[in-house]
What does this fold into?
Amino acid sequence: VAFSDVEEWGVGTGINNIGLGLRLRYQFSREFAPYVGVSYTRYLGNTKDLREREGEDVESSSFVAGVRWWF
It folds into this structure.
């Protein structure tokens, strides 16, 4: 949440964005579990307006992959 517009940073007043992610993990053991997933972000309010004015996307999706590993 931003309390003021900072156009140099592309941030508008209010709630800036919302994100959603989903990951699928296969746990070989408690210590090792690879995963794949998808992530979605959408900009809101004044931040959305600033991004549209600059010709930038207001929604983005990405794929993620990784490993949860601990010892």
Observations:
- The helical segments are 45-53.
- The mean pLDDT is 91.
